[in-house]
Amino acid sequence: MTESSPAITRVAAFDVDGTLTLHDCVVPFLRRIAGVRRLAWGLLRHSPTVVGAALRRDRDALKAASAMAAFRGEELARVEAEAEGFARSVFEHDLRPEALAALRAHQEAGDTVLLVSASFEVYLRPLAALLDLDDVLAVRLDVDAHDRLSGRLSGPNCRGPEKVRRLHAWLGEYAGGRDAVHVTAYGDSRGDREMLADADVARWMGRGEMPR
Questions:
Q1: For residue 41, what pLDDT is reported?
Q2: Relative to the CA of 89, which of 16, 120, 122, 191 has its CA 20 to 30 Å away?
Q3: In whole angstroms, what is the distance from residue 175 CA to residue 85 CA?
Q4: In Å, how far from its chain's centre is CA 197?
Q5: How confident is the model at residue 131 (pLDDT cuts 50, 70, 90)?
Q6: Residues in Cβ contact with 79 at an 8 Å cutoff, skipping those fewer than 6 apart
Q7: DSSP summary character for residue 6
Q8: Distances from the Cα of 34 to the Cα of 74, 101, 112, 121, 127, angstroms
Q9: Is the distance from CB of 107 to CB of 86 less than 8 angstroms?
Q10: pLDDT band with cut points at 50, 70 and 90 for residue 55
Q11: Helices 47-56 and 59-71 sit at what angle, rounded to 10 degrees?
């Protein structure tokens, strides 16, 4: 987005995994980067952390441990190249038809369309480019001075209340703040609950009733 962009009055915020896509994207991308054996070994090395996080159902800690196992020491250029191919595959094979139709309807109406996701920004950026979207709010990976991934996340996992925080920060920077914009949000899981509750219109894409 730039200062010369048209005034933003309506925003559609889409979760990705299970909402815009048919399947989870995080685990397949981790496997693409690290391979099944290396990923499993990396998680085994941090097994006390992983087991504890699993027992607590702490998705943030699990995301951090998985990122460390898959990305630590990887060259940024290789990960970005793999991300381009991964995004292309998702674009061609894994988008939910009904979600894509809703997304296109927002675009045709002139709405600003964002991805707000706990998936990794490194592959959501090229996916957003393929879909001609306006911006991406997602999980960032820490990069060291030598253009290698440290394995750490750069900032919090973009899930739950963090989705609302990131979205409000974006709206404050580009659209005059949350109160100046009509927001339609799409989600399918408990991690989207806060974003859906904050929206003017909530579109539940999951099974059963929307969690309260």
A1: 56
A2: 191
A3: 32
A4: 18
A5: very high
A6: 33, 71, 122, 141, 149
A7: P
A8: 9, 34, 35, 17, 21
A9: no
A10: very low
A11: 150
Contact by Cβ (8 Å): 94, 166 = no
Distance CA 162, CA 205 (A): 20
Cα separations (Å) of 138 from 7, 118, 172, 180? 23, 6, 17, 23
Token representation of residue 125: 């950026």
Q: Which two tokens stand for residue 118?
A: 């706990």
CB-CB contact of 144 with 58 (8 Å): no
Domains assigned to the chain: 10-204 (3.40.50.1000)
Write the single-letter amino acid at 6: P
* Greatest distance between any 2 Cα atoms in the chain: 50
Cα–Cα distance measured from residue 26 to residue 184, given in angstroms and rounded to the nearest whole number: 24
Q: Which of 64, 176, 84 is nearest to 125 (CA)?
A: 84
At residue 66, the pLDDT reads 84
